[in-house]
Specification:
single chain, alpha/beta, TIM Barrel, 10-stranded mixed sheet, two-stranded parallel sheet, 20% strand, elongated
Length: 357
């Protein structure tokens, strides 16, 4: 079965004319139903003749993404969704209300193989990549549930977007297309643990999105201890490509730094971080780490977070402590899926579950 939600308009047009033997304009109609009206079934495509709708249902599918569970914050309207996929796997998405409009954080893979020591998403390794249609399905399903349209998108849920880059690029191509939802690339943020070849590919495409880099430590030894990916792509090379990224795209990089008690939160680490980033046009997002049951990482004290932020400020580094939304439903990313996923995870045996950095 071909998943029509995964096809950009030129490919859908090829499919409609060659596989279906229908005229080109039918592709535009179908694309509009899928990506503007965002329907879930062929039966809803009411300007297509009934026999055509039936043929479509026999030959193709619309990637199913359904809400399995929703947690809503009583404090600020943040909503966390556990979304079920066609094969029984689940991912998470988080809806946040900001004064500039709603923002959605979505997952890019079922699980993750990057192995960061403080993260819940990677505990069971990678199960499989999400398809472009499933990535779109996350957005469309949560919009259906809330009755609102997002004004920004964050690729910062479960998974490593640059480990599923081709599907992520196709997804963004469709979401940002003129005939689709027309989200501007400027309203998209993509977060990576630092896969350099993927950063280069993004840079060359000059899409105008915001790149967030999960740094979490200013020196190789400490970073490798909590992020195995650093052994393959060490800090020096990562900084080089980040500087280049700004030079080529003009987009300021945002560095994520999760503060872990006794690991990376001392004033000395703040000073090393300031030395590392000196001269870069960038921003540092400080996040008190979310404790994960299966991990021993502890959140830094409020005092340590404030001292760290102050020291960075004194040294001329632009840093903010991330405002915590939905703290009453604050399962760390990946925990809801581990606790609540109804049905067993169905692994794709073609993909190694863990990388060996
Ligand atoms: N794989 C990508 C995006 C997903 S993780 C990346 O590494 O950037 C999104 C962000 O959440 C990353 O900055 C990640 O390091 C951070 N993160 C993961 N687990 C966390 C935790 N327990 N507490 C705080 N931040 C965490």
């Amino acid at each position: 079965m071909t998943d029509l939600l995964s096809l950009p308009l030129p490919e859908l047009t090829r499919w409609v004319t060659q596989e279906l033997g229908e005229p080109k304009y039918r592709a535009k109609q179908i694309y509009s139903w899928l990506h503007k009206k965002q329907v879930r079934t062929f039966g809803e495509m009411t300007d297509l003749p009934a026999p055509l709708r039936e043929r479509l249902a026999g030959m193709a599918e619309i990637a199913p993404v359904e809400t399995r569970l929703r947690l809503e914050s009583r404090l600020d309207g943040t909503k966390k969704y556990l979304l079920g996929l066609g094969d029984g796997n689940c991912v998470e998405a988080v809806w946040m209300e900001y004064h500039h409009g709603p923002s959605l954080c979505i997952s890019t893979q079922v699980g993750c193989r990057m192995g960061c020591k403080f993260c819940a998403s990677t505990l069971g390794g990678l199960v499989r990549d999400l398809t472009p249609g499933e990535l779109l399905g996350e957005v469309y399903e949560v919009q259906r549930q809330t009755g609102k349209v997002i004004s920004s998108l964050v690729l910062m849920g479960i998974g490593e977007p640059l480990d599923n880059l081709q599907n992520v690029l196709t997804f963004l191509d469709i979401l940002c297309s003129e005939e689709g939802q027309r989200l501007g690339y400027r309203h998209v943020s993509l977060s990576t643990c630092g896969l350099i070849p993927g950063i280069r590919e993004l840079m060359d495409k000059k899409l105008g999105l915001t790149l967030s880099v999960s740094l979490h430590a200013p020196e190789d030894e400490a970073r490798s201890a909590i992020m195995p990916v650093n052994r393959q792509y060490p800090i020096g090379e990562l900084m080089e490509v980040c500087r280049e990224y700004f030079a080529v795209t003009g987009r300021r990089i945002s560095y994520e730094y999760a503060l872990i008690d006794g690991v990376n939160d001392t004033p000395q680490k703040a000073e090393a971080l300031a030395r590392l980033l000196r001269g870069q046009n960038c921003h540092v997002n400080l996040i008190p780490v979310n404790p994960v049951k299966e991990r021993e990482t502890k959140r830094s004290s409020r005092g340590a977070v404030e001292r760290f932020a102050r020291r960075l400020g004194e040294l001329g580094i632009n840093a903010t402590v991330r405002r915590e939304l939905g703290s009453d439903i604050a399962a760390a990313c990946g925990q809801l899926r581990r606790q609540g996923a109804p049905g067993a995870a169905v692994p794709n045996e073609d993909i190694p579950r863990q990388t060996s950095f």
